[in-house]
Amino acid sequence: MGIDLDDAADPAARAMEWLVLGAAYFLLILFLIGVFDLFVSLYLLVAAGEFTDPNEVVGLLDSVLLLLIIVEVHRTLLAYAKGKPVLRIVVSASIIAVARRAISFRLEDYGTGEETILAALAISVLVLALTVGYFLLDRVEVPGRPEL
User: Is 148 among the domain residues?
Assistant: First the structure.
């Protein structure tokens, strides 16, 4: 009489499902805190009259994009928990994350011109690669691979 591996793995699989759902609820709470913080920041900018300062606007946009990344990771966790494909969601979250980095790109964050150009080139390549990948995911169907 041997041990059935499926029966032995079932408690671990159930525990992982609960942990994934717990992480999804945690992200939901983080999102709500982030939305509240965004509205407080917007109010403070308007009250201080700094809402036309480009650096402050980029900071708000950075916060919005961070909230979108949280939404995409939440969608990924829910799709994973439901057994649905997650690859498109992960790529779209990656595009948002790299776009966030591109939008908040500052020349003064880098020591030399070479470092600045290298960082800008790396961000450009990432945006291009992820965009092409997302485009291909929408257009290509691989038999036997519904997640693509």
Answer: no
Residue 146 resides in a domain: no
Q: How many domains does the chain have?
A: 1
Taking only the tens place, the pLDDT of each residue in 73-89 is: 999 999 988 888 888 88
Is pTM beyond 0.85 here? no
| C-alpha closest to that of 138 among 148, 129, 146, 126 | 148
- Residue 146 has a pLDDT of 60
Distance CA 2, CA 70 (A): 44
pLDDT at 147: 58
Residue 128 lies in a domain: yes
**Residue 80: which domain range?**
5-139
Rounded to whole angstroms, the Cα distance separating 2 from 39 reads: 60
Only one residue has tokens 């969601």, namely 89
Is there a domain that residue 145 lies in? no
